[in-house]
From TrEMBL:
The protein, known as: UPF0182 protein FC770_14990
Location of this chain's protein in the cell: Cell membrane
Compositionally biased residues, Gly residues: 902-914
Annotated membrane topology: Multi-pass membrane protein
Organism name: Nocardioides jishulii
Biased composition annotated in UniProt, kind: Basic and acidic residues: 507-519
Signal peptide from the UniProt entry: none
Any one GO cellular component localisation term in the record: extracellular region
Lineage, opening ranks: Bacteria, Bacillati, Actinomycetota, Actinomycetes, Propionibacteriales
Protein family according to the UniProt entry: Belongs to the UPF0182 family.
Region Disordered, annotated ranges: 1-20, 507-532, 899-924
Amino acid sequence: MSLFGPPAAAPAPTPGPPQRRSRALVITAVVLLVGFLLLTAFSAFWTERLWFRSVDFSGVFTTLVLTRVGLFTVFGLLMALTVALNMHLAYRFRPFFRPSSLEQENLERYREAINPVKGWVLAGAAVLIGLFAGASASGKWREFTTWRHSETFGTADPYFDRDVSFYVFELGWLHYVVDFLLAAAIVGLLASVLVHYLYGGIRLQAPRDKFSPAAQIQVSVLLGLAVLAKAADYWLDRYDLLNTSGSLITGMNFTDDNAVLPAKNILVGIAIICAVLFFLNVWRRTWMLPSVGIALLALSAILLGMLWPGIVQRFQVAPNQPDKESAYIEKNIEATRAAYNLDDVEVTRYNSAPDLGSALTQLETGTSSVPLVDPKLVSPTFEQQQQVRAYYTVADVLDVDRYTLDGEERALVLGVRELDQAGLAESDRNWANLHTVYTHGSGMIAAYANQRPGDNGSQADAIQWAEGQEETQKALSSLSDEPFEQRVYFGETSPVYSVVGKAKEDGKDVELDLPRGEEGSSPTSTYDGKGGVPVGSPFNRLLYAVKYGEPNFLLSGRIHEDSKILYERNPRRMVEKVAPWLTVDSDPYPVVVDGRIQWVLDGYTVTDKYPLSQKESFEDMIDDSLQDDLGFQTLPTDEINYVRNAVKATVDAYDGTVKLYAWDEADPILKVWRNVFPDTVLDKDEIPEALVSHLRYPEDMFKAQRYQFARYHVTDPKDWYAGNDRWEVPNDPNVKNSQQPPYRLFANPQGDEDPNAEQIWSLTSVYVPREKNNLAAFVSVNSDATSPDYGKIKVLELSDERTNGPVQVANEIASDEDVRDELFSFDQGGINPRYGNLLTLPVGDGLMYVQPLYAARDASESSYPILSFVLVSYGGNVGVAPTLRGAIADVLGVDDSAPSTGGSGGKGSGGGKGEQSPTTGTVNQRIKALLADAEEQFAAADKAQRAGDTVAWAEAIEKAKELINEAVELSEDK
């Protein structure tokens, strides 16, 4: 016990310093953040791997990863070692004695700060710069793989005699290697100079000996290597002249050949001399000669590389450009036509002299081949009449395909009934519904593209349906002996992801199907396709929960051990992923093959490196009034100067199976990528026969070709330069400032008068002279993949400059008195007229325009276009009627109604009334009777054709022609 009382209480322990707790919290937060970022990156990587494996393209993923990682590692290490080695050498050979100066005193404090951690500084700088270099190299995987697997084109350029493959596959990688070496030399130089300066090897304020011997040697060598790399760069620049875009053409021109190319050769020599001077400076220890060399190189680059070409262009070329550039334009024309596959275009002079008799003969035999249903206008009609539920939708612009129905080949307008979750009520928008119930679309909707209700005696309706809601897919499902699978899990509007599969065999189906029956009951089903990624394991559930930021992957009872997740479901995106080297057409189209809905996509191999071929923006070439979305680009820029439809791809709408088929097997770019990714592209002969008949000539390819042919149909260099015969695609009369799209239809591309001429499944367009509206040419390409002439482009070049073009015809139609009379009734009823495609058809030594006219009430939300009239323009005459046959008869000036005890004339100039008889009555009555007899003969011909009786078919056609010719003669005599 203390003398002074009880002992004092021990002081309470003081808490640890606040800094220590804060440091622990910061470390914890950093660890958690880094862990989350690593988990996020890993989940993205691993789920990507799982997706590639689910579509059987694991090899593509593996090749991409290994190639990019390999390039990252090799070039990253090379750059890091370059930096580290030069910094180490500069430090290792630093001067041990540094003369005292104010400059060195100021640097001393930096040396003292860095010395304790100099190893970390060196490693950090090397790693950081190496990471940037590796990331840059990994992005060059296309250039590396094409260089490694290069294939020859078999065509050499006319200037350097190099095969085209050198420019397309090799030059880009060589440029990157040279640029990397130049960058490595410069970065190494900067790193070494910095260390030398810091440790006194370089003394900028010293009166003499500003460089130590070690610094001078190292800097001289690095400068020599940099200038040597620049010499190699100048050498490669020579080849780039064949791909340089000039004001007139792409490729070599007079100035390039006579000024720029010699300048590049001279600069190569000067750069090599400069490099040698820098290397000699290792022994001479004077900067005088290297400095003179660098000054000479810079001056030569300015005088020879910039000023001299400008002088040649201004004083030699500009005064005589047509003569000076003629030889270079000729080579540009040859290369462009080859690169865009325009060498074999068949051009025919066409004397447009409309013959009404021949026109009627042809149109009567082929009326059903003229498409009347406009794919870009009837989407609302499809949705209103066949949508069934608000959460189903069809594409804004529908597709056109051909099918053989009841023994007859018919063109159909098609739309897939896809799921659109935007149509769900807000109360139904929960996670379970969005991702496990509303998972797929259902079936296809089809309308006859070339049949107006009433044309075949059917009951009038807005659309002549090939199938109805209650008889779902009856027509299309009859095309195959296989059971028809109408569920659409992979489509253009499919959800981001869906979780499918039921817990056990007797489990409950929860995925909603298309309503059936009069009561509209909604059956359910369960996906059992081979596509999709298993998501039942805890590990996969965690990965997808992180990937989509969705805890329900871990919490929901809808996910079980048998569940699969479907994602990356857009057909075009799927093809882009498994074939990252393809540019994919902007319009996937659906077909029915072997009982399955398949999305067909056209894949293009493109490049902007084809020597001397004209570069153009891909977007500009394919842009028109229907173009909403562009094809996926595999180039750093939008410009291309070579294109081939190398691949046809399919995506199964039910299970997501992706198949790539080689289509242009001779394409060298395709050969290269088949070497890079072996066993991913199937041979052409492996395409199923049932699919071939639905393959078609791709629109984006055709639009690029028609864009280039508008100028490159001229093959004489001086005429090309003058530009007097340049064409252009006309504007769409229905859409302001947008080009008219090509149309897919059965057509006679030769414009033969023969009524029995074959109607070919074609993609068609027209040209007008530049900045004019009259018609210049009609162009079509054979789109029948079963034909030996598939891809053959034919052009009918009009001799008569007075033939009206689409805009002029549209104006004629709009101002026609009879058309205005019909539209007057629209105005009275509050109906808005909407004009459909203005189609151009070569008929009877002339060109016939056909345009459907729709009616719609814009004020009503449920309004949709109804096909009301067909407009026809031929030989300066305009016809209007509810049917195509009626409009054609109206152009002739007669009534096309069948003979009867009385009838009224058409809206043309020859309308009339009275009793009809084949041999008596008025002229109009006799014409109507003759046309009716001709129609009977055509019907008999159709019957004979179906029976295979060619003799009877020919006799009936001949009789019909005689009757029509007699009717025409009567019409002309009136």
